Amino acid sequence: MKKGIHPEEYRTVVFKDFSVDEAFLSKSCAASRETIVWEDGNEYPLIKLEISSKSHPFFTGKMKFVDTAGRIDKFKKKFANFSTAPAGAKTPAAEAPTPEAPAEDSTES
């Protein structure tokens, strides 16, 4: 392994999954400006999570939809004006003329 590329200072931090309001204590070198008082009375840096093993469907066995960034609403808003084409409408590909095959030379020598 290369020397000097791996972090040297790991500290105890609290990871909090806000989708299910669960937290756990672990070691990390991730930067954080926020702190939280843990169950033992000590204050630790807080790392906010959107999803963890406590809320991920793979680990919970439950299908729970988490849309924290509003991606679906943004998609629906963006494509609200588009609709499916009527049944009799032609697509641009169907209207384009097909290229004719080159004439074959049928003369034999």
The number of helical runs is: 3
Strand line-up in the sheet with most strands? 2-1-4-3
Shape: extended
Helix content: 10-25%
- β-strand amount: 15-25%
* Rounded Rg: 29 Å
Mean pLDDT: 76
- Sheet of most strands: 4 strands, mixed
Please identify the structural class as seen in this structure.
Answer: alpha+beta
Unreliable segments of 5+ consecutive residues: none
Number of strands: 4
What does this structure look like?
The structure is a single chain. With 109 residues, the chain is of the alpha+beta class. It has a domain at 8-62. It is 15% helix and 22% strand. It is built from three helices and four strands. It has helices at residues 57-60, 71-78, 92-95; strands at 11-17, 22-28, 35-37, 43-49. The chain has a four-stranded mixed beta sheet with strand order 2-1-4-3, with no helix packed on it. It is extended and about 70 Å long. The relative contact order is 0.13.
What is the strand and helix layout of this fold?
Layout lengths: L10 E7 L4 E7 L6 E3 L5 E7 L7 H4 L10 H8 L13 H4 L14
Parallel strand pairs: 1-4
Antiparallel strand pairs: 1-2, 3-4
Concise summary:
This protein has 109 residues and is α+β, with helices and mostly antiparallel strands.
Keywords for this entry:
109 residues; alpha+beta; 3 helices; extended
